[in-house]
Amino acid sequence: MTKDDFNEGLLGFLDASPTPFHATQNMAGMFENAGFVKLSEVEKWSLKKGERYYVTRNDSSIIAFTYPGSKEYVIVGAHTDSPNLKLKPNPVIKEHGVVKFGVEPYGGVLLNTWFDRDLSLAGRVSYLDAKNIIKDALIDAQKPIAIIPSLAIHLDREVNEKKSVNAQTDITPILSTSEEFSFELFLKEQLKSSGVDDAVELYANELSFYDTQKASFVGLNSEFIASARIDNLLSCYVGMLSICSIGEDKPMLFIASDHEEVGSESTSGAGGSFLESTLKRMFGDFEEYTQMIRSSMLISADNAHAIHPNFPSKHDSNHAPLINKGSVVKVNANQRYASNSKTISRFMNVASSINEPIQNFVTRSDMGCGSTIGPITASRLGIETLDVGLPTFAMHSIRELCGSDDAYSLYKIILGFND
Known about the structure:
Helix content is 25%, strand content 28%. By secondary structure, the chain is α+β, with helices and mostly antiparallel strands. It folds into two domains: 3-82 and 228-416, Zn peptidases (Aminopeptidase); 84-211, Aminopeptidase i, Domain 2. Strands 1, 2, 3, 4, 11, 12, 13, 14, 15, 16, 17 and 18 form a twelve-stranded mixed sheet that branches. Strand 5 (84-95) and strand 6 form a beta hairpin. Helix 4 (230-244) runs parallel beside helix 9 (406-416). It is globular.
């Protein structure tokens, strides 16, 4: 696969995955096309050596794995969720001549980037069908249906000097001027567009707004990729393609978990049992399971803060990653990242053997450090772990920026672990 093919597929994946539900659905489709066999957590598993499998949880987390009989697995972990504005259960607000939707920020949203963007709505809806069965369906309006207009500078003369955003009052998207708007009818229309014609009663929903602007190349020589949800669908795409590119005889597992942006403490998050229970079903004997855990390695793949050319003081100058200069090994003395000298050395060895560049990131000692699924999974399983990221600008913005070389480089390194 060439870098151009890789990146074109990446842009398509980003555009087609406005929510974790859609990302998981798209990855499941990719695994189906690659010959992976679908498993269900509520059914008995009868795994066969030489096969490839995948399983989902909550429609928003997914695991794919090969099953060659080896215990020395390379596990790649990422997350499907991104900061966004989530619809509240009773969202409709009709006032001042418009219809608005009440929203709640999900994760560490960079709120000021959500103003004046063409927004659409997507996610999961639960409903009662004509046979009295509760079902779920994914919807995606796929067109701009809302906007959050900025307040004119004439009414806020100090906005360029000091700007704060009230999450309750300032970021309610505007949809319409029609007083006849019905949220129930709107949802039923969206369900019909998704092929659901027998929704008798609507129940709960998990819907998120997203920016309709497509992912694109940016720069004089297309050096950058700009898109929503680069954190962390970029790593999801790398992990997905990596496991689809190796043979059935190579021991590899890929997991993309939900809810990382809010702490991972959920049934489908890295703090839940999804990965552990899957591995225990793969290796039913406790001795074999323990041997596999201690013989394997987790590559926790998330984004990394590239040094911002307009704000260089925000970085430690000796640990300031550059865009398009390679994957970033993330280190933190207080275990906010799980990398250690052993896992770093193994990653460096593989990267060096195929002439792929790597960089290092350590946050400034006088600034707080974020974390990833790495320490969470390492603590739960006891598996040796490396935290690695791809350099990014504008993390948690509605439109993030990464390099057009780096993800392809990490993809090649991961494949190098299986050579």
